[in-house]
Amino acid sequence: DGLSVAGEHAWPMLDAALASPSPGAVFAAAVMAIEGKSTERLNRLYALAEAVPEAQRGLLAAFGWVEQEQLRGIVVGLLASPTPFLRLLGIAACAMHRLDPGNARDAALEGLAAAVRNRALRAVGELGRRELIPTCLTMLKSDEEETRFWAAWSAVVLGNRGAGLAALREFGDLPSCFQARAFRLALQAMDQADARAWLRRMSGNPENLRLLIQGTGIVGDPLVVPWLIEHMSDPKTARLAGEAFSVMTGLDLAYLDLELKPPQNGGAGPNDDPDDPNVEMDADDGLPWPDPERITRWWNSNGGRFAPGTRYFLGAPLTREHCLRGLKEGFQRQRILAAHYLCILEPGTTLFEWRAPSARQQRLLGAMG
To answer: Which of 154, 222, 223, 213 is nearest to 189 (CA)?
Structure first.
């Protein structure tokens, strides 16, 4: 907002930040360039993002952040560009605003540029284009791992429970940058019996513990609550187990005073020790520290209303209305699950864009009922 108020006076500061381009700097500059309709500055940002791949997500985020009206005349040129990166940006912009790029998408699916094809495949699922399931299934045979992933992901989002789900489960089984996303969606799409069997099989490998805890929350069978509570006593898994319990029951641990004060040095992220080689951010940062004793007492008093063998999500069995409520009222990772459940329950539903500015999300949610 401050940059927008400053207008042209903001550009010297933005140009200085772009000397060492970070996603945040590129995002801010791109939003300013789009809002100011500055073709020259946008072209420079395109070239910068293409040359510095780690900055590309900032440029993509900017196209999703601004309003559709501000992209008129910009995205059309991107979709028609002979440069693969610019076509990818145009398709991504359309998909983030849940607009179908049409012929540009079809040309990308048939094209040779893998990155453009992969983004088009992802858009197929996000836009609910069920008539393109056969295309997704054909792409499962690709030699490109990322192409196979997005083909499987979109096929499952669109309702395929055969080859698409089988391929997604393979991604969920093997360590890769796609594993966590594949694991979550596959569990959401599987029936209870198959999901429980998959988790039992994964439990034989200790390295799968974090996935197993997350998956237990997604499967939502109350039979596993005692196991989750056990893992709330281990600082390494406590917050993750608490989140899984909340996904199943819908409880806000902080609001209901079912949390503990964070232990000293309890986080797994970087610290002030210059000799500590760990610089990775704490994966559970921001999650409450559950109190196993108080949660056990709550469960002993309330667990009887949860029927074993039923999938619970935020305290109730899956229905469209309940998932919509979760999308409106849940925490962000719960909202992401709710958005995918809406597509799973009604294949062909446009995937809700949970990353959009809040005012846009509120308008969309109001239109959904």
So the answer is: 154
C-beta of residue 332 within 8 angstroms of C-beta of residue 354: yes
Q: Which two tokens stand for residue 62?
A: 């900017």
Q: What is the pLDDT of residues 5-58, one digit of tens each?
A: 898 999 999 999 999 999 999 999 999 999 999 999 999 999 999 999 999 999
Alpha carbon dihedral 59, 172, 176, 23, in 10-degree steps, equals: 20
DSSP symbol at 191: -
Residue with tokens 């083909």: 151
Strand pairing class (312-313; 289-290): unpaired
Token pair recorded at residue 249: 């029951």
By the 8 A CB rule, do 228 and 239 touch?
no
* % helix, strand, coil for the chain, step of 5: 65, 0, 35
Q: Can you tell me whether residue 346 is helix, strand or coil? A: coil
Q: Token digits for 270?
A: 């970087």
Closest CA to 353 of 128, 149, 104: 128
For 88-127, give one letter per residue: b (16+ CB within 10 A) or e.
bbbbbbbbbbbebbeebbebbbeeeeebbbbbbbbbbbbb
Residues 114, 91: Cα–Cα separation, whole Å: 13
232 close to 242: Cβ distance less than 8 angstroms:
yes
pTM over 0.90: yes
**Neighbouring-strand partners of residue 290:** 259
